[in-house]
Structure formats: C-alpha cells, structure tokens
Amino acid sequence: NSNVRIQAAKSLENINWIPKTKTQRAQFFLAKGDYNSLAKLGKDALPAIQSEVLSGSTETKKKIAEILPKIAAEESLYVLLKLIEDSDAQVRQKTVAAMSEASDRRLIPYIIKSLDDEDSYVRMEAAWSLDRKGWKPSNNDEKAKYLMIKEKWTELLQMRDAAVPTLIASLKDKNPGIRLKSTEVLRAMGNVGYAA
After folding, report:
1. pTM for this one?
2. What is the pLDDT of residue 7?
3. Residues in Cβ contact with 52 at an 8 Å cutoff, skipping those fewer than 6 apart
C-alpha cells in the first residue's frame, strides 16, 4: 500500500534513518516520492522502479516515466517499453514524452506505433515527440495519421486516395471532433471520399 509506504518513509526520516545499501536507498526514495534522488541512483534504482511499473499507481508510473531518460542504462529502455503498454492513457502519454527525451533511436518505432493509440492525447504526444526527433513519415499511412493528428486537414485532403484508409478508420475514433473533420475531408474529396 503506497500510503503505508509513505508514512513508513516519513517515520524513518523523522528518526534520521539513513539507508545503508543502494537497494534501501532506492526503495526509500521511491516511498518518499523523491524521484530526482531516485534517478541519481542510476541503474541501482531499476529493481525498485520495475516493481512499481507492475503494481504502482498511475501517478507513480507517470513520475517513473519522467525520470527514466535520466537513467543511462539499457534496462531503463525495457521499463519504458513496459510503460508504453500500460492500460492508463496518462501513463502512455508521459511514456511517449519520455521516449522523445531519451537519446536512443531504437525507441522511435514505439513512438510511431503510438500514432495508432486509442487515446487522442497519446497520439498528439507521439506526433510532438516525433517532431522533436526530426522524424519524417516513411509511407503514406504514417503521413496520413501524422497529418490527422496535427490537424493539417488541407494537406490530408491533398493526399486523396492515399489518405482514405486513415480517414475511414478515424470515423470510429472516440473523439467526436476527429470523426466530424474526417467526414468533412472525405466529403471534400468528392467521388473518392463518397466511394469510401
């Protein structure tokens, strides 16, 4: 229970307890919510972090995502890959932002995959993150998704047939604004859009 852990950390701090091992320090900083000190532990923080990724609260997972790019360890990438699959959209959104801060180019395919996330905020963060990475779409599908997320409707309209599959898929989006604009773009395409 995180409340019990927080109270235990406060009690230990009140008696001036000092963690003796790196594992104790990591668990203590995590319990206190001292994520900056946790990040400074580097690789030694990862065992404590990994257990929180599996069972922690949404807020804890979001904070963990923020500090992972500061931990220069291969294992931190695997933690990001776990977080990008979290059921909570806010965690996925923070994770995409964290991936864009990490210098490892191997994360770009996971950011690209987030262009398909069910949550529009995660998709928007993915588009912004890809912009920060200097990414350019490698095919029409990626380009259409990217333009839709960035609300570049005129450019999407100019793609004509190549944009139709993305526009049709967006008619099922949870966001009513996206459904409406997609309908308008399909209608503006004329016969191409009507046939869809």
Report:
1. 0.85
2. 65
3. 30, 60, 61, 64
